[in-house]
Amino acid sequence: MVTIYSTPTCPYCKLAKDHLKDKGVEFENVDVSADSAKAQEMVKLSGQMGVPVIVINGQVIVGWNKTAIDEALATEPLAKAA
User: Fold this and answer.
1) Per the count of CB atoms within 10 A, which of 2, 50, 67, 74 is most buried?
2) How many CB atoms lie within 10 A of CB 32?
3) Backbone phi, then psi, for 54, in 5-degree steps?
């Protein structure tokens, strides 16, 4: 399971989402600018307010970090986008 906490105007969020799409990984996109409860959930997970926050199989990655994302994806198989 992959979840990305993001905002529509965040360029690093777009990079992360495009990277996952390119790898064929399905993910849930959570727009924290439109949902304050989800924004609070993100802060509890990451300890900060910045986006993107990416959760891959329970591993929290703060910010756009291609290496960390790829390493987290390699640890367990995920559902592939159709």
Assistant:
1) 2
2) 22
3) -115, 130
pLDDT tens digits for 4-48?
A: 999 999 999 999 999 999 999 999 999 999 999 999 999 999 999
Decide if 68 contacts 49 (C-beta within 8 A): no
Sign of CA dihedral 66, 7, 53, 20: negative
Measured between alpha carbons, how far apart are the two ends of the chain, in Å? 15
One CATH from 2.60.40.1600, 3.40.30.10, 3.50.50.60, 3.20.20.70 for 2-63+70-75:
3.40.30.10
pTM of the predicted model as reported, rounded to 2 decimal places: 0.89
